[in-house]
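pasting for ref
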Amino acid sequence: MDYEGDLALGIVEEAFNALCHHHSVLRARVERDDGGYLLHVPPGHVPEICNLSGTGQTLRQSIIHRPHYSSSLARLLVVRGDGSGQLALQLNHAVFDSQAAMYLLNEFWKSYTSIRNGEDISRLTPEALPASPSKYMTAFWDDTDLRVQDTMSADRAGDPSKLDREDFNSLPHEFRIRFSEQETRFLLHVCKEENASLHAVVSGALVLAFRNYRAHEDRSSRRNITCYSLVDVRNKLVPPLAPTETALVFFRSRADVSVGLEDPAITIGKKIKNQLDNDIARRLSSTSERPTLRRPQTLSHLNQQNMKESQSLAVNNGGAIPPFRLPNDLNIADLKFIPDVTVNPLLSKEPWPSFTVYSYNQRLTIDGRFSSLSFSVNDVASIRGFFRRALPI
């Protein structure tokens, strides 16, 4: 996150230590034996706080060289400038997900602000370590979900010390649009009038943008496009799960839509949402059959295909992130999720473009990435233009 104002490092350390005391998983390491992975909290272990100098690029370079899972699963990185800087909570995705990250950051900033204001913060009793998601999801997951889980193992990042400069040429092209508060309010008004969710409308606009991008191949006929979405189901389970009770409790749901060049984004989005909602309800029903894989292909096989020819994309919903409690002289100007795949070329390439839709500070943001092996910078710019025109703003 980009901050504006004065950040006191001493208070950052005190607030982070309080957070790590409360959430034992932040102090955990992973041990591996023949039976698999095991979370372990060594006595006295505290995650590292990295105080860096430089720019946002310095932060991204530091993220690549994250600690090995056997030494630490989390660390805090701070880049301080003159009246502004960056702060990042880096977490191992095998144990944490975005829901847990936002929950932890919210608690961190509450503690930081309380200390800054001269208030006492209580040392909360350490929480139990999170359970494996399989404890809750084995009865619901299908082969597709399990294959996604396999890509999130604790040691999937490889050894970045072996990277050459040329390796970074394969990093994905990043796509980012951050709308103004006024644009966001107007789009929310349109969604309310049309009885459509924000995620659905953005998904519809992205699908329509891809259809228009491929219009030179066939302008007359409709084209089938697949839209995937990782859907967190914590709040849909009985009883609901807390953000730090487990991680990666999701379905990879799929919607298939037929798209014409003149179809409204809202109409497409409603079709996508209807299919996703029906899929989730079916899979959570105790009376439904265990779902089967509709595309019997491994991720490695998909990666070998020409991703540019694939009529698929993923649009994930990050939701509305509430504002953090901050001192009066500090502001979080921007917040961004940085997946490992965008900075570490050792990770396997994603089989299709992927986007995350979320809002912070009343501003809608779409973060995405395209394989640089299949999409050029001009391709991404073209799709961005089609997307902006497809949105009802």
